[in-house]
Specification:
With 334 residues, the protein is mainly beta. The chain is 13% helix and 51% strand. Bound molecules: 2-acetamido-2-deoxy-beta-D-glucopyranose (8 copies).
Length: 334
């Protein structure tokens, strides 16, 4: 009790001695350049003095840190630097954001108060603190991606999208709102947070867009009796499609009736070990996933049908000939 009262009185007495008429008149104080320090670094606050100076002190806002050689601050991070008589400087170690603010070096010189004010600015590198998790959604869904960052100054956030077409800028800001997402909008999204204090903080997230299969390749083939025959079917789908094969309405099974079904990723093969006359015909490849299913007809032709095709192509020149003849006849009428 006695101690704290004594301390208060002492503060007041010293304040009066060191800063008669605090705050100093505007003409006596001058704002120096701001000091910018990164969080965790040390800040050096310099103050120049001369032989006419009788009393000196450093203040953090209105709290005395040092009065002459005497330390008033209880903060161990604040130290007085042993310097020449022309300098009265302090160091603040391991600077934190709450240290930001005005610091004043107060001088009594020739019985005139003077003060040097420095503004300590504490910078904090941009850091992403919360970002959306990888997501899988169905085509057509509305999707919101989030990326929250902290830092001083306030970091900016930009989004980029990496797809088959490369890396493209999407938007600026904490949120990306995608209405009715398409499969082209699937892929990796990058959230880049920066404030020029240090390297940007970057986080990635994966957006998977589910869509029903569509068959991109279903080619009919010709195979002679006694040969190995293959029918192929390829489907684009997310999740990857499962395949089934039918001949007319009959489902085919792997290993039965001399056929093998081989599925590899997005494509399926129906393999005939030894094609026979009964194998010729119309097959159906069905591709399905949880989003839906689709099918395509694939025909296994015998070599005989080649003749039909050549006959069909042979008939083309004759019909062209007929057309030319008709045009010539039409023109001759005039
Ligand atoms: C110092 O920082 C303050 C507060 O951030 C700002 O208002 C002022 O313009 C800065 N002065 C200089 C010289 O940078
Ligand atoms: C400066 O004052 C602020 C506010 O009172 C305090 O939070 C901070 O720790 C002080 N910093 C130093 C280095 O004294
Ligand atoms: C991140 O943000 C989400 C949504 O605002 C919230 O539910 C979650 O608790 C946050 N996570 C962390 C670690 O702050
Ligand atoms: C997606 O957003 C649009 C426009 O905001 C809205 O009309 C639509 O109903 C939403 N769709 C779903 C599936 O929520
Ligand atoms: C294919 O089947 C035919 C008749 O069923 C048979 O004669 C022939 O040896 C078989 N070929 C092979 C390579 O198995
Ligand atoms: C099937 O997969 C292959 C290899 O992964 C890829 O090159 C091809 O584009 C895919 N096709 C479709 C239709 O998705
Ligand atoms: C094969 O069958 C499908 C339906 O099962 C039918 O739509 C298609 O026309 C048939 N193709 C041929 C060449 O007969
Ligand atoms: C193929 O698709 C058609 C129409 O989409 C459907 O009517 C038919 O049942 C399907 N066939 C098979 C074998 O799934």
């Amino acid at each position: 009790m006695y101690n704290s009262v004594c301390f208060l009185i002492l503060t007041w007495v010293i304040a009066m001695l060191v800063f008669p008429g605090v705050p100093a008149r505007s003409g006596d104080s001058f704002l120096k350049d701001n000091i910018t320090v990164r969080q965790g670094d040390n800040a050096l606050l310099k103050c120049t003095v001369d032989s006419k100076v009788s009393r000196v002190a450093w203040l953090n806002r209105t709290t005395i840190l040092f009065a002459g050689d005497e330390k008033w601050s209880l903060d161990p991070r604040v130290i007085l630097l042993p310097t020449a008589h022309t300098e009265y400087s302090i160091k603040i170690q391991n600077v934190d954001v709450h240290d930001e603010g005005p610091y004043v070096c107060s001088i009594l010189s020739n019985k005139l108060p003077k003060s040097t004010k420095v503004h300590l600015i504490v910078q904090v590198p941009a850091k992403i603190v919360n970002v959306s998790k990888d997501i899988a959604v169905n085509e057509g869904s509305n999707v919101t991606l989030m990326c929250l960052a902290i830092g001083r100054p306030e970091p900016s956030i930009i989004w980029k999208h990496r797809s088959a077409n490369g890396l493209k800028f999407v938007t600026e800001g904490e949120y990306v709102e995608i209405t009715s997402i398409t499969k082209e909008q699937s892929g990796e999204y990058e959230c880049i947070s920066s404030n020029d204090v240090s390297a940007p903080d970057v986080r990635m997230l994966q957006v998977t867009v589910n869509y029903p299969p569509f068959i991109s390749k279903a080619r009919s083939t010709r195979t002679a009796v006694g040969q190995r025959g293959v029918l192929q079917c390829e489907a684009s789908a997310v999740p990857v499609a499962a395949f089934e094969w039918y001949k007319e309405d009959r489902k085919l099974f792997n290993g039965l009736n001399g056929v093998k079904i081989e599925n590899k990723g997005n494509h399926s093969m129906l393999i005939f070990f030894n094609v026979s006359e009964e194998d010729y015909g119309n097959y159906t490849c069905v591709a399905m996933n949880k989003m839906g299913n689709t099918n395509a007809s694939i025909i296994l032709y015998g070599p005989g049908t080649i003749n039909d095709v050549s006959r069909a192509s042979l008939s083309q020149p004759s019909s062209l000939c007929l057309l030319v003849t008709l045009i010539v006849l039409y023109l001759l009428k005039f």
